[in-house]
Amino acid sequence: MSAAEPQESNDFLVGHATRLLESHLRLTGRALLPEGPAAEVARALYHAPFVVLSHDTGDDPLFTYANLAAQERFELPWAEIVGMPSRFSAEPLARHERQRLLERVARDGYIDDYSGVRIAKSGRRFMIRRATVWNLVDADGNRAGQAATFSDWQAL
To answer: Is 91 exposed, middle or buried (0-12, 13-18, 19+ CB in 10 A)?
Structure first.
């Protein structure tokens, strides 16, 4: 990975990207990216023109991944967004709505019709549309978090 990319181990990034992509394909039946060597696909996901984020399964879930498009949209570099509570991506008044969304995904496996307002570090608000949110599962089928992708947003 280049110097502009996260300082995480390459094995972590490749493994996490693989989990993101395989979980998305398994649940939605749609591939986010074409198949290829795992390291190349991980790099392509990181540089994709659409946002991809994930968080863990904690009581106050923390972001575990944010590709460059996500970092740009939320105005946060890898070192700030990864490890941040994912609830901070929504304004306080929208957090209840966000929690209902996450519960629906946990129950149904994924949704592909989410729209909502999010907030960047600068305070700029933006509307996301037609986001897909899905459960991440590990190799043993255990839930390992949730992920989201979207390419349709508008500044508010």
So the answer is: middle
